[in-house]
Amino acid sequence: MALLKIDNLSKSFSGLKAVSNANIEINPRELIGLIGPNGAGKTTVFNLITGVYVPTEGRMLFEGKDISGLTPYQVNQRGIARTFQNIRLFADLTVLDNVKIALHQHVKYSGISAVLRLPSFFKGEKEMNETALELLSIFNLQDKAGELAKNLPYGEQRRLEITRALATRPKLLLLDEPAAGMNPQETKELMELIRFIREKFSLTILLIEHDMSLVMGVCERIYVLDYGMVIAHGTPDEIKTNPKVIEAYLGEEAM
Amino acid sequence: MKTINKKTLFSAVAIFAVYGIVQGLIAFNALSLFYVLTLVQTCIYIMLAVSLNLIVGFTGQLALGHAGFMAIGAYISAIVTMKFDGPLVLALLAGALAAAVAGVIIGIPTLRLKGDYLAIATLGLGEIVRVIWLNTDYVGGAAGMSVSRSINWTWAFFLMVITVLVIRNFIRSSPGRACISVREDEIAAEAMGINSTKYKVIAFTMGSFFAGLAGGVYANYMYTILPTTFGFLKSFDILVMVVLGGLGSISGGVIGAIIMTIVSAALASFPEWRMVITAVLLIILMIFRPNGLLGNKELSLRVFQKKRGENNGLAKN
Questions:
Q1: B312 to chain A: nearest residue by CA?
Q2: What is the CATH number that goes with domain B32-304?
Q3: How far apart (Å, rounded) are the C-alpha atoms in residues B194 and B59?
Q4: Do strands A57-62 and A172-176 pair parallel, antiparallel, or not at all (unpaired)?
Q5: pTM of the predicted model as reported, rounded to 2 decimal places
Q6: I need a labelling partner for B66 at 20 to 30 A (CA). Which of A11, A78, A90, A132 fits?
C-alpha cells in the first residue's frame, strides 16, 4: 500500500488553478523528487499535504487515512514533517531549543509537574536534552547547541531545519529545496546526508529541488509538475529523456 | 545538578532576605505607611507585569485587557470576603479562578485574531468588564465597594513570589517552549506538531489567573475598589512595565514593575508632572534600549561569573 496517495488533488486561488488533478503515489521508504519550472505549484502541493491549504478538490490518503482538512499540527502528529523553502527556524532561540520544541509532542511530563518541578520533569527534560543532542550530532551540530539559530551560517541553518523536522519522528519527510543557496560541495554532502537519514530513520522522503544533479543523483522516482499538472513521472533516466519535460523546461523550439 | 542547587539556594536566600528586611522594618515601625503601601503595590504590579509578559512577551499575543482580568479577580474576591464573610484564601482563589474562566471564554474566540486586531478586541473586552462592574449595584456601582484590609506585606510578597515562580517554571518547560515557539514563528510551530491555539489559550488563561490573583490582593489591601481603577489606562500601565523591563524576560517584568511603581510613587506629590516625566523616561528608554532594559534575556548570576569556554547565548546579540 502506498504511504501517501494523492488522489485527483486540485487547489484554486480564486480562479487561478495552482494545482489541478494531481495524482501522486509514494510508497514506503521511497525517495521521490518533485520538480518543475518556477510557479509550477510544487510548494502548493507541500502546503496541501501539510494542511496549510485545504484542497479545493480531491483527497490525500496517508497510511490509508484521509488527511485532507487536517490542520498543520495534526498532519505533523500523524507523521509528516517538512522543511521550508525560506528557512523558518525559531531564530531567537538556541539550536537546542529549536530541536526540543519539535520534541514537544512526545514530552513525557505534564504542565503541572513542570510548574512544581517534580522528578518526572527533570527526568523528561534530561531525556529530551539527550535525544536532541543525539539528533544534532548526526548533523554535526552538537557543538552549536547553545548558539542562537539566527547566528548559524546558512548551510547549518538548513541542516538544523532538517534536524528539527526529524525530531518530530516523521514517517514521511518533505524537503522544500534543501539545497537552495548551497555550493556544489555542500550539495554533494547534503545528498549523502539525505541518503543516510533515510536509512537510519527508515524514512520516506519527498523533495522539491531545482538542483538537477541532486534530484537525478538521489531520487528513485521523479514527478514533474507544470502549470499545476503532473506532466510526467518515472525514474530519473525516463524523466531526462521525456519530451514533455524538456518542453516544459526549455520551451517548444528546443525540441 | 550541583550548580542548580547552588542557584536555587541563592535565590531562596535572596527572597527570604528581602522579605525579612522589609518585615523587620515594618515590625519596628521604621517604614511609613506610604512606603508599605508602595511595597505592596510593587508586589501587585510585579504579579500583573509577569503574568502579562507570559501572554505578550513569551507567547507573542498583544493583549490589552489585563486590567479587566484584574477587576474580575478584585470584585469576585471582594464579594467572597465582604458579602459572604469567606476566608481570604478562598476569596483570592475564587477571584483568580473567575478571571481564568473569563480568560478561557474570551481567549478562545479572540486569540484567532492576530496582532492589532487582538489588541483592539481585548482592549474592548477589558472595558466591557469595567462597565459591567460600574453598572452592578450589588458591588456599589460607580461609588465602588469597601473592602476590609486582610492582606499584609507577607501575603502580598509570597503570593508575588509564587506567581513569578509558577510562570518561570512554566516558561522553562516543554509547554512553555511551545508558547515561545508560537511567538517565534506560528507556521513553523504548527509544522512541528504544536497546536498553536491551545498554547495561546493556555498562556492567556494562566496570565488571566494571576491577573485575577493580583486583583484579589489589590482589593483586600486597598479598602475600596472602584470600577474606574480598572480602565484601559491600567492595562497600558502594565504593558509599559513589561515593555520597559523587556518582553519575554521574567526578571525584566519584575524590574519594570519595580521601576514604574517607584517612579510613580516618587512623583506622587507632583501629579500633574507624573505622566509627563514617565513619558519622557519611556521615550529615552526606547531610543537607547528599544527592546527594554533586559531585552529577552534574564538577569542571571552567570553575568557575574567568569566566562567559560561554553557558549550560552547570553553573550550573543
A1: A146
A2: 1.10.3470
A3: 13
A4: unpaired
A5: 0.91
A6: A90
